[in-house]
Amino acid sequence: MRSLANHPAARGLTDDAAVLPVGNETLILTHDAMVERVHWMPGQDMADVAWKLVATNLSDLAAKGAVPIGILLGYTLGEQEERFVAGLRAALTAFECPLLGGDTVSGCDGARSLGLTAIGRAVHTPVPSRSTAQPGDTLFVTGALGAAMMGFEALQRHGADHSGADSAAFRCPTPLLSEGQALAPIVTAMMDVSDGLLLDSWRLATASGVTLVIATEEVPIAAPEDRRSDALRWGDDYQLLFTAPLSAKLPVNAAPVGTVEEGEVPLILDGLPVTDSSRLGFAH
Amino acid sequence: MRSLANHPAARGLTDDAAVLPVGNETLILTHDAMVERVHWMPGQDMADVAWKLVATNLSDLAAKGAVPIGILLGYTLGEQEERFVAGLRAALTAFECPLLGGDTVSGCDGARSLGLTAIGRAVHTPVPSRSTAQPGDTLFVTGALGAAMMGFEALQRHGADHSGADSAAFRCPTPLLSEGQALAPIVTAMMDVSDGLLLDSWRLATASGVTLVIATEEVPIAAPEDRRSDALRWGDDYQLLFTAPLSAKLPVNAAPVGTVEEGEVPLILDGLPVTDSSRLGFAH
Fold first, then answer.
1. Do B9 and A98 touch (CB under 8 A)?
2. Residue B173 near residue B41, CB atoms below 8 Å
3. What is the dihedral of CA B162, B165, B171, B175, to 10 degrees?
4. What per-residue confidence (pLDDT) applies to B76?
């Protein structure tokens, strides 16, 4: 598939979103799909599924410092349609993002799948990329990791239709749109943490051709200390991971968690080089 | 869902595509989904499925007189991945349209579904709409209807993996991009015929608040004469249906098939008013 993406806007399909200059604007385009039993559990409130579908796509826009313009939805008819529309309405209202179009199709048998395309407008060019981290920079993350993991486990304990606050981070993540917009002029590289801090750091390092040296005990977590290793490997938190000079005046709270160095190996964790990404996180 | 689409670009979800002014350009955005067993048969060559997924989306751009800028793909892993990529490559090359991004997700059990978002740039503003047919205009169609129906029936006779020319119109339709671009400055209303000439005429009439008076024997068909009624109700032909003054100098071949009149009833077929769209065509 990657060989088809030879347009510069596609960024080789290795970035969070496509970056497309159109006239005097720069558009940010992203499409994420969600499949029942892979991305959500049967029995989950479809309002939460709709919210998450919107939020995860808008998180890709956040990583590009973009303002949402609208979404297009691919929707498979099925159960809980009213709940889905309610969740969609809540998310679009919360993020001030209109539904521009899409397609509704008859249900297939088996698991449902949903697709969403989000379109945004860059507030700053050049648009932040994964591939431009500079040796000498510091690696930052905007907040604690592991909240979605704890939320998922609460949902497993209570049942898929549980709607308590203890599972909200998994069910209803928040894309950090204003944070991404504020950071865009300052960062040297940025992405959202969708598949775990360690795996996404590996990807940022690989795209930039640098080594990220991470002190794992510096990473803020939203989980018990004995779950630190899991919290750094679990996805779905949608914090922003970025590099910037240590002297940069940051417009948002962010924790320094490592440094950017020259090197061949993408990651050095607590002094140990990592040469294989297979145990770093969650790949869909 | 329609109540969420209150942005003017969404055109109330009743048009072929969203029309979004961005800076000094006007973007055309559309998203179509395809589901196995609903939109294609198990056993069909996935190269044809990929081609058709691209072609049907680009046909929506054609109806808006747009030049394709790129696509985003939502792809569910499954069988025949190499064939899918081959068909995708063929379509993107034929229509000079790059892959900009998308998402690949693990397969669900049961039927696969695919989604595609196409983005285009309008070559003429105002962008053609379904809702602006004018009483006094003539209704035209760019070519013969029923070719996809005959192709589908050939596929049913020979088996889903048949690849003969007699099924090509169903398997590999061609979006009329250059025709749409040439017609955009001339038409008063335009859409592509995806769900059958009669049902799509009903929709154009309803959106415009006019009556379309169609002489069914004037409609060019690509099927035996005794299948005329079916050919006018079968979808998937992707001809362009448009209204224009009879005196307009058309830049492409098109057959006059009816007239636009004032009235409450959307369609008059061979002198008979049609007040119910349920038997006019194929609704997904």
1. yes
2. no
3. 170
4. 87
| Total domains, chain B | 2
In a domain, A133, yes or no: no
Residues A160 and A264 in one domain: yes
Contact assignment for B99 to A1 by CB distance below 8 Å: yes
Asked which of A62, A94, A122 is the last residue of a domain, the reply is A122
Is pTM, for the whole model, over 0.80? yes
ipTM of this complex prediction, to 2 decimal places: 0.91
pLDDT tens track for A159-187: 888 888 999 999 999 999 999 999 999 99
Q: Which residue of B has its CA nearest to A2?
A: B99
**Environment class of A93 (CB within 10 Å of its CB; exposed 0-12, middle 13-18, buried 19+):** exposed
The residue type found at A114 is L
CATH number at residue B193: 3.90.650.10
CB contact under 8 A, B72 and A104: no
* A81-94 helix and A46-62 helix, angle to the nearest 10 degrees: 30
Query: B31, A6: Cβ pair inside 8 Å?
Result: no
Contact B101 A30 (CB under 8 A): yes
> Do B275 and B143 belong together in one domain?
yes
Q: Identity (one letter) of the amino acid at A93?
A: T
Q: Determine, for residues B113 and A108 on separate chains, whether the beta-carbon distance falls below 8 Å.
A: yes
| Separation of first and last alpha carbons in chain A | 16
Q: Which of A100, A106, A129 to mutate to test the interface with B (most CBs of B within 10 A)?
A: A100
What's the CA gap between B198 and B231, in Å, rounded?
10
**Domain end point (choices B122, B154, B174):** B122
The answer to whether residue A24 scores a pLDDT higher than 80 is yes
Residues A283, A2: Cα–Cα separation, whole Å: 17
Domain hosting A192: range is: 138-279
User: Using the 8-state DSSP alphabet, how is residue A2 labeled?
Assistant: G
**Within-domain flag for B30:** yes
Residue B27 with chain A: CB contacts under 8 Å: 22, 27
Same-domain check for residues A115 and A143: no
Q: Which of B61, B71, B113, B195 to mutate to test the interface with A (most CBs of A within 10 A)?
A: B113
Q: How far is A215 from chain B (nearest CA, A)?
A: 31
